[in-house]
Amino acid sequence: MQKGIFTGLLACASALALSACGESQPPAPPPPAVGVVTLKTESAPLLNELPGRIAALETAEVRPQIGGIIRRRLFQEGGFVQAGQLLYEIDDAPYRAALAQAQGSLASANATIASTSLQAQRYKDLVGINAVSKQQYDDAAAAAQQARANVAAQRGAVQAAQVNQNFTRIRAPISGRIGRSLFTPGALVQAGQADPLATIQRTDSVYVDVTQSAAQIIDLKQAMKKGGVSEADGARIQLILPNGSSYPIEGRLQFSEVTVDSTSGAVTLRASFPNPDGLLLPGMYVRAKLVEGQVAQAILAPQQGISRDARGRATAMVVGKDSKAELRQVEVDRAIGDKWIVTGGLKPGDKLIVEGLLNLRPGTVVKPGAPQQVTATAGAAQGGAN
Hints:
Elements: H1 2-23, E1 33-38, E2 41-62, E3 68-73, E4 80-81, E5 86-90, H2 93-127, H3 134-166, E6 169-171, E7 176-178, E8 188-189, E9 198-213, H4 214-226, E10 229-231, E11 236-240, E12 251-256, E13 266-274, E14 285-302, E15 306-308, E16 314-319, E17 325-329, E18 331-336, E19 339-344, E20 351-355, E21 367-369, H5 378-385
Parallel strand pairs: 1-21
Antiparallel strand pairs: 1-20, 2-9, 2-14, 3-5, 3-8, 4-7, 5-6, 7-9, 9-13, 10-14, 11-12, 11-14, 12-13, 14-19, 15-16, 16-17, 18-19
Helix pairs in contact: 2-3
């Protein structure tokens, strides 16, 4: 009897325990916290990053204008030279001899002109009294005129010989940095040879030649015509150096080519940059950031809030109705710093999720708050936390 009562009590206790377990439910997990930025319209510069090359402000190749043996080199390779500075000396012995010969010929011509002029004057007096024939006087006058012409020719020969002798001293045509010398003392050089003796480049200021596609130029002009983009206030250009750092001095756009390159479909733009420290070297590859215009009503979205789906389309998560995550397909134009210019899919007032996107699914109820890592304006952060 007691055994039966004990068994019944155990069964009742088990039933009560099972009933209690079935009635209690585990608490629901809290909604995931996300960092949001409230989007708004603002004015933004329209930047375009273009490839470019550094070119010297002035470049001059030092070349011989006569032939001969180099006797001396009078500059330090890689140093600074002034315009007119003596750089090379060519052996001038043959040219000194040629000058002396030309001067002798000029002296002989001057002596000849004296005798022929006197004879022509005498014949002029005698032909008046028929002491000589008219033909004799004409011959004497022609001889005197020919002697004067010969003097002029010999004087030109002397000047040419002096010029050639001066060419034996090769001087710098411009001021600037001179490169390595391709010829050493003792080398034979010729006028019109293929290789220059050295090259001088002026680099206290430099040019940067950048190329921009014709399509980009047309897009910019059409955007300006529609009124969405205004012309930039001055053509300012910034440089990104090959090591990724920014050049500290801004440049100015000088001009744009008037024709499109038929092989590349691009237009060349030229900008000038001060180069006081010589950091920019001719031939260096750089990237130039050109301020093309100003977008008056741009929506700038942090890049952390824009991703790509499997088809490569830009997408974004926003906080929608009832604090649920909502997936949007968006259109972006270009990056400005760490933000995208959004042209479609988002509007001012949308709360863009920029943090907490990992494993976040559309339709999930979220708890929006101010972002912790993403830089945002004070107004955007406060709006996102509401």
